[in-house]
Amino acid sequence: MRFAQVTALDPDALGIPVIVASLGLILIAIAVSRVLGLGVEGRIGWASIRAAVQLIAVGVLLAAIVDAGIGDALAWAWILVMIAVTVWTVHRRSDATIPHLTLAAGLAVSGSVATSLAVAFGLGIFEATPINLIVVAGITIGNALPSTVLAVDQVAKEAGTRQGEIEAMLSLGFDRAMVGRQLAPSAARSALIPQVERTKVVGLIALPGAMVGLLLAGAEPMEAVTVQLLVMYLVLGTVALSVLAVVASSARQAVTADLRLADWVGTESV
Fold this sequence. Notes:
By secondary structure, the chain is mainly α. It has two domains: about 10-65, no CATH class; about 70-250, no CATH class. The chain has helices at about 15-20, 25-35, 40-65, 70-95, 100-120, 130-160, 165-170, 175-200, 210-215, 220-250. About 30% of the residues are buried.
């Protein structure tokens, strides 16, 4: 069963004045930062400008995809670019240069996203239009990125603080897989905390974005809840699979093939 489209937004109510009015809280925050000398007004302002530029660019591209006769091809190309940028970002933002990290992150993220798309569209929940493909992929990839970066950093931190323990394990005959199994649990738990906590409090402290958007657009409450549950489970599954795969691979790399402590262990920035 496909969910019905909702179009309750009033186009006449949208425009530059609405965007300017929505900046009110941001301008207040910038003013407070300046008055108190907190020095974060530049970050707030830059984040706002960057978000506007990126969203406008996305809007232009989405409009082009809708109008193009090769929309499906462009949509899949966009998804591949999102995956590539995510893998590159994981590699760039990680403090430690862990071997095979790019391959592990690429396989984890692409495999998780492929599974999410297969569920959402293979079961006929959403119509497989170019826009829907991009939206579902973007939601899952966007949530997987920060958790995957955190997973790599947690492995680096765990290995760095347990160097003596790792060497002791090696002296007792542990192999790479056995050492990795000792490092992975703590790193995985730490990396999953943000997403797990967001999932646990959904509906109690905050209403998530997909549900809010559907409600504002005039959808029935239970329809909005059903869509949000689907999105939330796809996101949690994508994040969890990406984190677990990257943690398992990275933890194993703390020991070299000849059973020595890897050079990158202990080199993460403080």
